[in-house]
Design goal:
The strands form two sheets. This protein has a three-stranded mixed β-sheet with strand order 4-3-5, with no helix packed on it. The longest helix is centred in the middle third of the chain and has 13 residues, at about 50-65. Helices cover about 45% and strands about 15% of the residues. By secondary structure, it is α+β, with helices and mostly antiparallel strands. The protein is globular.
Length: about 140
């Protein structure tokens, strides 16, 4: 079965080698926001002939074709996700590195209001919240 990313690649006219197909499948199956090293490890479980350089080149190609979205969550490594069909924001747990996707209509409306009040039309934005679990914050205060 063809993955969502493979389908997008074909729609955009990208040449799909077997290695690109594997990388696209790995990205489509990802439930997290993997970096290139993680993608490489996952892809080589499927095809041990895939090189790290191939993963880097493929990710760059997919990003340039707007198939992938690149994120820097402050941990020093570029992380990737399939370009979303609908907008969402991210909350990053600084202790575990877990990335939680969320949407919040109040935040969306507030951003629109701020742009309008400053004399601008908002055409896009990216919101990343960096947080630690409340339980650990409370324990440190003791």
């Amino acid at each position: 079965m063809i993955s969502r990313l493979e389908k997008l690649c074909l729609e955009k006219g990208l040449k799909m080698t077997e290695q690109r197909r594997v990388i696209a499948r790995v990205l489509s199956d990802a439930e997290d926001h993997p970096d290139v090293e993680q993608l490489y490890r996952r892809a080589t479980r499927i095809d041990s002939g895939i090189s790290l350089a191939t993963v880097y080149r493929t990710v760059k190609l997919f990003e340039e074709a707007s198939i992938l979205e690149r994120h820097d969550f402050g941990d020093g490594r570029a992380r990737y996700e399939e370009s979303p069909e609908s907008h969402h924001d991210h909350l990053i747990d600084l202790h575990s590195g877990k990335v939680i996707e969320f949407t919040n209509e109040e935040i969306e409306k507030l951003q629109q209001r701020v742009a309008t009040q400053l004399g601008y039309k908002l055409i896009g934005h990216r919101l990343e919240l960096y947080a630690v679990p409340i339980v650990e914050t409370a324990a440190k205060k003791r």
